[in-house]
């Protein structure tokens, strides 16, 4: 590889001035390992599941990926910033429960419940961020506590208000059709039925990618994940950045929660437990490092796509679905090892 020769008497050249090959740029992309993995999963199920390549199956796979991908995007940004959120899964259910029960009990337009849910969900996210920055405790402990509290509140309040573990139907309330159109409708494109969550997912990936690569806040995210003390020393508002990242997780939890509610018009209070691990897995498969400072929103989308292909591919292949988590775990390990190998090769050639 050719590079700019350093001026006489200077032993070091800023690496940003070094010329690099397209191959090295490709190898440096955090989502490369997940793209290779996604291609392998696609080919695998294309061979072993006859119905996997049908047009109708495409919509189903993308829908399964979008329900994970909407949350994997902000979780990936949070991990790039060096933190976790173990409450993300139950927060989705909390968002749906607040919308449903507030609308039903107050006999109001469902849009009022949707608005209240947005405020409550954002408050939960900000609470996580403020507790993290004020107490200096690990995000694992903070969000585990929030996870347990929300799990108890979801079940306890639903039983107290509704008398059962699920909410009452709100399908006959004013505003329900328009809310369903926004959060749970479907459209036909080229003969394929696509859920609106796919559009939400693509939009969030595009927005997150723009934030990471084109904005000052994106630079702050990478800086905070790479080292909070060093970032603070150069003027990065570390606390505000982390609180903003947790608020982003809450915003996407609200979107996912409204989809859950308006897809079925009732919500089971015990849903969402365990989904936080799937969001993290999608982000890690997509190239995010657990240590922070590295990753991409596109990678999280590819990780979610691998989840969608695997979950539905096993069904199309008519295999026992009990094997699903085995395949997901194998993909997690393989993607992580591949990402680590690629990074070492790139660093060795610098």
Spatial gap, N to C terminus = 10 Å
Strand content: under 5%
Please tell me what the overall shape is. globular
What's the number of extended β-strand segments? 2
Give the neighbour order of strands across the main sheet: 1-2
**What is the tally of helical segments?**
14
Mean pLDDT metric: 88
Going by helix content, strand content and strand pairing, the class is: mainly alpha
- Level of helix content? over 70%
Rg, alpha carbons: 22 Å
Give me the strand/helix succession.
HHHHHHHEEHHHHHHH
**Biggest pleated sheet:** 2 strands, antiparallel
Low-confidence stretches: 1-17
Structural descriptors:
single chain, 350 residues, mainly alpha, two-stranded antiparallel ribbon, disordered N terminus
Provide a compact summary of the structure.
The chain has 350 residues and is an all-alpha fold.
Your description of this structure?
With 350 residues, the chain is mostly helical. It has 14 helices and 2 strands, in the order αααααααββααααααα. Strand 1 and strand 2 (192-195) form a beta hairpin. The chain is globular, with a radius of gyration of 22 Å.
Topology:
Elements lengths: L21 H6 L4 H17 L6 H26 L7 H19 L3 H26 L3 H24 L13 H9 L1 E4 L2 E4 H19 L1 H11 L1 H6 L4 H27 L10 H11 L11 H20 L7 H25 L2
Antiparallel strand pairs: 1-2
Helix pairs in contact: 2-13, 2-14, 3-8, 3-9, 3-11, 3-12, 3-13, 4-5, 4-6, 4-11, 5-6, 5-11, 7-11, 8-9, 8-13, 9-11, 12-13, 12-14, 13-14
């Amino acid at each position: 590889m050719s590079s700019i020769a350093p001026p006489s008497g200077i032993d070091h050249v800023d690496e940003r001035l070094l010329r690099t090959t397209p191959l090295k740029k490709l190898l440096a992309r955090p989502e490369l390992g997940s793209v290779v993995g996604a291609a392998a999963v696609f080919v695998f199920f294309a061979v072993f599941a006859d119905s996997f390549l049908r047009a109708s199956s495409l919509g189903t796979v993308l829908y399964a990926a979008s329900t994970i991908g909407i949350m994997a995007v902000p979780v990936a940004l949070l991990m790039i910033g060096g933190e976790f959120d173990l409450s993300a899964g139950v927060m989705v259910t909390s968002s749906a429960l607040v919308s449903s029960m507030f609308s039903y009990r107050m006999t109001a337009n469902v849009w009022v419940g949707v608005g209240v849910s947005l405020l409550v969900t954002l408050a939960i996210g900000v609470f996580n961020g403020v507790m993290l920055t004020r107490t200096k405790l690990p995000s694992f402990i903070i969000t585990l506590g929030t996870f347990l509290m929300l799990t108890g509140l979801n079940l306890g309040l639903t039983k107290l208000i509704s008398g059962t573990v699920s909410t009452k139907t709100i399908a006959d309330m004013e505003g329900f059709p328009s809310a369903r159109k926004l959060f749970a409708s479907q459209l036909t494109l080229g003969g394929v039925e696509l859920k609106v969550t796919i559009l939400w997912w693509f939009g969030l990936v595009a927005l997150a990618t723009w934030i990471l690569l084109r904005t000052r806040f994106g630079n702050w995210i990478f800086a905070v994940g790479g080292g909070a003390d060093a970032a603070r020393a150069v003027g990065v508002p570390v606390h505000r950045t982390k609180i903003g990242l947790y608020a982003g997780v809450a915003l996407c939890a609200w979107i996912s929660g409204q989809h859950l509610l308006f897809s079925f018009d009732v919500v089971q209070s015990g849903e969402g437990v365990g989904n936080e691990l799937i969001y993290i897995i999608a982000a890690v498969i997509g190239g995010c490092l657990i240590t922070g400072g590295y990753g991409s929103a596109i990678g999280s989308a590819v990780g979610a796509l691998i989840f969608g292909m695997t979950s539905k591919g096993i069904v199309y292949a008519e295999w026992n679905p009990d094997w699903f988590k085995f395949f997901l775990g194998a993909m997690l390990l393989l993607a992580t090892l591949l990402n680590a190998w690629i990074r070492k090769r790139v660093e060795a050639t610098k």
